[in-house]
Amino acid sequence: MPAADVDVNRELNRLVRFALLQGLIEAEDAVWAANGLIGELGLPDLRAEPVADDLLPGASPDGILERILDWAEAAGIIEGGPEERDLLDTRLMGVLTPRPSDVVERFRALSRTSPRRATDYFYGLGVASNYVRSARTARNIRWRTGTDFGELDVTINLSKPEKDPRDIARAGKAPATGYPRCLLCRENEGFFGHPGHPARQNLRLIPLDLRQGQSWFLQYSPYSYYDEHCIVLNGEHVPMAITRETFENLLRFLDLFPHYFVGSNADLPIVGGSILSHDHYQGGRFVFALDRAQVERDYPARSGVAMGRVNWPMSVLRLASREAAPLIDAACGVLEAWRGWSAPEVGVLSRTGDVPHNTVTPIARRRDGRYELDLVLRNNRTSPEHPLGIFHPHADVQHIKKENIGLIEVLGLAILPPRLKWALSELAEAWLRGEVDLAAHPALAAHDPWYRGLRERHVGLEAEAVPGMFRDEVGRVFARVLSDCGVFKRDDAGLEAFDQFAAAL
């Protein structure tokens, strides 16, 4: 867009007014904030002009920022590309975001009367400051698919911008300082960013009192996969580990924020999340399919802790208690037993030599006055037949989902790659043309066996039903993915092995 097509003075006035209405700044801050903005853009001045409130955006400043970035790119202030645009818009919003101490003070004041009001404030701040990029996550394609395990949530992730060649070239020239050490380190708060590491001037962290002698912090995810997707991060750069402290921390978090769930990725490669180098948890205010799943078999309660097998494609042991201490003891007992458990008859081996394979994905919530802890049994062993993992999406479903199955997918929310948006559209077009295979479409070849099977099962499908059919079938593939990851399969042998493990506890 030519620079002349954007009135940057008007857009900056709109941005200052937006910040006032959203509570990012106070009236006394307006001139100071305006000077900070023009300083970042190298402008000589900012002429005040009235702004009609009804012409401002809702909770996110994304639209205003996009026009300012268009102007900056056309004016030669930035070269362009998603990464450089993000660096600039974060600098601008950093000018308007309250100081960390002010945010912490207000959060703590609200927490004394209502933890929910505190998180409402903090999440609203993240959206208004554009740290939580809600305008981008709104582009994600979402739906639900009914399965034997209830409705599963499916998302095609379109929110993260793809790398531009200019971004890649700049990243190659960026200095490798090792500061911050990773994207979850506490030192990201206010970090200026550079090609290869995002700017974080608008990031704010809330210190948490999880355990004495350790620093933990609360923040929100910039690319939320579900409502109020938050991250609880260790103040030290230490690797992920599932221990007694993990269970204690998760339940302590629920004491602070009973309206949230919280869970941890597993601590082994393949079955862990994408960042194993920094200890952290994830939580938020969302009801997942696993939350709705019911216990299908009760096991004997011990020390006031109820225990049962959940009707779920993965192997889930649900523990519940009104008291935290016995629940933590029970969870430690399960973890210790599982780490040493082998069931060769169903392919479960706890170790190969000195290499451990068994761990858990824990998920905690409050329900009906009780703590509830789901322990999802995981195993990361590989084989020649399944080199990416025996309990990992198998080869025949990797055209839909190949990546690791972490905490969010375990809960029943599929995070699928952006390539599927194009693929599903092309598959629907091929279907409507009556093509029975994908020989004419090499880019779709990975989907061919699946596509042929669908044509056999959906003979005579009405044209208007084709897109919905593909979405439903993707959801069913996701259910299969979760079944692949289940260590005890849902057949007679698998469920018997599950019951034997529970009995041994």
Concise overview:
The chain has helices spanning 8-21, 30-41, 62-74, 82-96, 100-113, 115-128, 134-137, 165-173, 244-256, 289-292, 324-339, 407-410, 419-432, 448-457, 466-485, 492-504, and strands spanning 141-147, 150-156, 206-208, 216-220, 230-234, 261-263, 280-284, 295-302, 305-310, 316-321, 351-352, 355-356, 358-367, 370-379, 413-416. It is an alpha+beta fold and 505 residues long. β13 (358-367) and β14 (370-379) form a beta hairpin.
General description of the model:
The longest helix has 20 residues, at 466-485. With 505 residues, this protein is an alpha+beta fold. Helix 1 (8-21) packs antiparallel against helix 3 (62-74) and helix 9 (244-256) runs antiparallel to helix 11. Helices cover 37% and strands 16% of the residues. The protein contains 16 helices and 15 strands. The strands form three sheets. The protein has a ten-stranded antiparallel sheet with strand order 3-4-5-7-6-13-14-10-9-8. The chain has a three-stranded mixed sheet with strand order 1-2-15. It has a two-stranded antiparallel sheet with strand order 11-12.
